[in-house]
Write a structure and sequence with these properties.
Elements (H helix, E strand, L loop, with lengths): L7 E4 L2 H10 L3 E3 L3 H4 L1 E6 L2 E7 L11 E5 L3 H11 L10 E7 L4 E7 L5 E7 L1
Parallel strand pairs: 1-4, 5-8
Antiparallel strand pairs: 2-3, 3-4, 6-7, 7-8
Length: 123
């Protein structure tokens, strides 16, 4: 396995977090989350870790990470077809792709914990 950095993000409800990310094609890997209160999910070469933080306010959380993918538009279209819920209570939403001045095509996903995943590909 190659060396890499992996984000560790807060989750107020690990079961809800797992269900949200499973809809996006991630699978549970690693330890038994309900025993250790620590969740690891992966999709292809991407791995996200979540620690239980029941007091997280999803409308004020400032955690996030960046996923560089081969085709941001294709992944956005896949996640849009799945129907990422837009939830005013948690702020979860999927934000459409844009072209950046630094030559990336990017979109954003905010999960039910308020975590921001910026996703992009080189334009």
């Amino acid at each position: 396995m190659s060396e890499r950095a992996i984000p560790v993000l807060p989750a107020r409800d690990l079961a809800e977090t797992l269900a949200f990310y499973e809809r996006l094609g991630f699978v549970e890997t690693g330890t038994t989350w309900d025993v250790y209160r620590y969740l690891i999910v992966s999709r292809d070469q991407y791995e996200l870790h979540f620690f239980e933080a029941r007091d997280v306010d999803p409308l004020t959380t400032a955690s996030g990470c960046y996923l560089r993918v081969a085709d941001a538009d294709a992944l956005y279209a896949e996640w849009e077809r799945i129907g990422v819920p837009h939830d005013a209570a948690t702020g979860s939403r999927l934000i459409a792709p844009v072209d950046t001045p630094y030559r990336m095509r990017e979109f954003a996903l905010v999960d039910p914990n308020g975590n921001l995943l910026r996703v992009g590909s080189i334009d």
